[in-house]
Write a structure and sequence with these properties.
It contains four helices and 13 strands. With 225 residues, the chain is an alpha+beta fold.
């Protein structure tokens, strides 16, 4: 799965991929001592932290039946993979992880809000078979979507409550677990505001909210990412 170049273009250097994350590269990360195969990281505001941690495995390590069925009697390969992904995620305070064995891409999202919760939180996971000829979701596209979701959460965490504002009866918010934005009122919740839309001011490199006639009703305080 060649993905490094598209990710670099999409996030303009604010998001990067490093291989063999551990000593000495992990000196960039506080407490880094465990070596993971891949880390997708964010470098914003002078700090470096993990968005996604991943492992490459030999073919057959990812057991489709055990991951999909939630089997209790797990094979040794599955138990070890769980321990690795959960351990790396907790160690690097990372809420998304993946494993790839050449046959399946396993994506895990930890339903946690803080680092201590990662070890015992509920998870959601997805399995995408690798098939270069598949007409639907490919492993490469799924990996790109994984990074995008992790980036959205990271942005939401950094923006925090300062990103909450209201336009009319609608309030702009972010889902705490996914970073996805939505608008809420006293009676409804929608992915888009019913009367205004967002566009990019190319000169200021900031998002603006405008009505149907193009009139700007709000400039965002944060630069577009």
């Amino acid at each position: 799965m060649y993905i490094e170049l598209p990710i670099g273009y999409a996030w303009e250097g604010q998001c990067f991929i490093r291989n063999g994350i551990g000593p000495p590269q992990s000196a960039l990360l506080e407490g880094g001592s465990m070596t993971a195969d891949v880390m997708v990281g964010s470098a914003v505001g002078g700090s470096v932290h993990a968005l996604v941690i991943g492992e490459f495995k030999r073919p057959g390590v990812i057991n489709l039946r055990e991951w999909l069925a939630g089997a209790v009697d797990l094979s040794l390969n599955t138990r070890r993979l769980q321990q690795e992904l959960w351990g790396y995620a907790h160690h690097y305070n990372c809420y998304y992880a993946f494993a790839y064995d050449g046959q399946y891409l396993l994506i895990v999202r930890f339903q946690a809000m803080t680092q201590p919760e990662i070890r015992r939180c509920k998870t959601r996971h997805w399995l995408i078979p690798y098939d270069a000829q598949a007409p639907q979701v490919t492993a490469r596209r799924a990996f790109y979507s994984l990074v995008r979701c992790a980036w959205q959460r990271d942005v939401g965490t950094r923006v925090g409550d300062s990103g909450i504002f209201s336009l009319g009866d609608w309030t702009f918010r972010r889902n705490a677990l996914t970073g996805r934005v939505f608008w809420s009122s006293n009676v409804d919740r929608r992915p888009e505001h019913p009367d205004v839309s967002r566009s990019l001011d190319e000169d200021e490199r900031k998002w603006v909210w405008a009505d149907d006639e193009g009139g700007v009703v709000r400039h965002e305080e944060h630069h577009a990412i």
